[in-house]
Amino acid sequence: MHLNTRVIFTLYTIYGTLFKVVVSKGKVRGVSGQYPLVQNMTVTEGGTVNMTCRVEYNDNTSLQWSNPAQQTLFFGDKKALRDNRIELVHASWSELTISISKVELSDEGMYTCSLFTMPVRTAKAYLTVLGVPAKPEIDGPTKPAIEGDHITLTCMTQGSKPAADLRWFRNEKEVKGAKEVNASGKTFTVRSSLQLHVDRNDDGVAYTCKVDHVALTQTPQQATEVLEVHYAPRVEIINSLAVPQEGQYFKLECVSQGNPSPDPVIWTKDGGELPDLDRMIVEGRELTFTSLNKTDNGTYRCEASNHLGTSTGEYILYVYDAPTTPIPSTTPPLHPIPPDSTALLDTQVSVTDPNAVGQHGTDHALIGGVVAVVVFVTLCLIIVLGRYLARHKGTYLTNEAKGADDAPDADTAIINAEGNHAHTEEKKEYFI
Fold it and tell me: How far apart are CA 57 and CA 36, in angstroms?
């Protein structure tokens, strides 16, 4: 036993003897109200904690702190255990406070404060030591994944007490993993796994594992794994002009997405090599026409490849005629001339619609056919109407004709005609 401990126990024996004498003389007051007061404490591993014992009524009776192993730490203001981590904070007849720095997991347990009355009165306080979880580590694929693969990401942290909680995030959006907890002495080892079926959308995605624990009062511990996924390319051709015309500068861009990057790309025209390299310039993924003409019409193909596959894109180029512009007049007109709506419509159609030329010709042919039918029907109606009028025209006979049927000559015909009207009431005309 340590020398200081022996001295303390000797003093305790002497004190007990004197206490009995005092009690026998009836000079101790309020002994029944002397009870030490303590409080349970929690501290993070590596931190510092104060253990305080108070008593409301005390007649100079000493207080003592003991550790879970029943070793005396302090008897009053006297240090009994050689441990540099344990220091005296305050000692008086009503309070004994000590501090423990650089707390270890082994310091956890039941601490006892004793008040040396007769009998000795004690109070117990439990010190809880929190194990700080280590920074998590992610175990993932050691080489780039291929699109369509199934991979597993495993996050692990050690040394937590109580067991830590692990959370997964995909680009800051939480996803659920499978958790596993194993005890290791007083601490715990925690694992969490993610099962992934990766595609090209997972390339470059950050998967983060965060540790949540009561001992982490500030930013939680975390680790991040950025996935690399290889996939075959996809090709798309983008043109710089919606309606390419003769003489214009024109550019086609081959946009290829793949990992590894399919660079360079191959340009062809109508299944063969580019015919005019002086006007058709290939720079990286771009095909540039310095000045378009009708010979550039055709199908252009862009091909991109990597070790996972090949992809092609096609663009059909049709070069339209250059727009004709009238020579502007040097003197402006007195009155603005409204534009011809028909001409504007034709111009707009020819510019905005690549198929406008053929469609415009078809419209004229249709209109001509309709006009021809209308003219033909009109002529037919005129002919029919003329024949109808000819057939229904009235018959008018002269006086000679009226009697000509039975008369041998004209005079007799006239006489016969007048005779036929002999009994007919004639109209008379009077002239003044």
Answer: 9
Residue 41 backbone dihedrals phi, psi, to 5 degrees: -130, 150
Max Cα–Cα distance, the chain, nearest Å: 200
Q: What are the φ/ψ torsions at residue 23 (nearest 5 degrees)?
A: -60, -40
- Quick one: pLDDT band at residue 362, thresholds 50, 70, 90? low
The candidate with the shortest Cα–Cα distance to 33, out of 17, 4, 55, 54, is 55
Is the Cβ–Cβ distance between 66 and 112 less than 8 Å?
yes
Q: Measuring CA to CA, which residue among 335, 322, 254, 325 is closest to residue 293?
A: 322
Q: Which two tokens stand for residue 244?
A: 């390419």
Report the alpha-carbon distance of residue 177 to residue 195 in Å, rounded: 8
Q: Tokens 């059909």 label which residue?
A: 316
For residue 229, give the amino acid letter.
Answer: V
Asked if 100 contacts 51 with a C-beta cutoff of 8 angstroms, the reply is yes
pLDDT in tens, 364-413: 667 878 888 888 889 888 988 888 787 765 544 444 445 555 556 556 65
Q: Which residue has the tokens 């009503």?
A: 94
> What one-letter code names the amino acid at 148?
G
- Alpha carbons 288 and 253: distance in angstroms, whole number: 9
What digits encode the pLDDT tens for the residues 170-208?
A: 998 999 999 999 998 899 999 999 999 999 999 999 999
DSSP 55-119: ESS-SS--EEEE-TT--EEEETTEE-S--TTEEEEEE-SSEEEEEE-S--GGG-EEEEEEE-SSS
Q: Give the three-state DSSP class for 130.
A: strand
Q: Is 282 exposed, middle or buried (0-12, 13-18, 19+ CB in 10 A)?
A: middle
Tell me the CB-side half-sphere exposure of residue 168, using CA atoms within 13 A: 22
Q: Provide the residue count of the chain.
A: 432
Least Cα distance to 42 among 94, 87, 109, 95 occurs for 109
Task: Describe the chain by its helix, strand, coil percentages, rounded to 5.
Answer: 25, 40, 40
Q: DSSP secondary-structure letter at 161?
A: B
Q: What is the DSSP letter of 331?
A: S
pTM score above 0.90: no
pLDDT-wise least confident of 13-17, 64-68, 144-148, 257-261: 13-17
Residue 278 contacts by C-beta under 8 Å, 6 or more apart in sequence? none
> Which pair of structure tokens corresponds to residue 374?
């209308």
Torsion region of 367: left, alpha or beta (phi above 0 gives left; psi -120 to 50 gives alpha): alpha
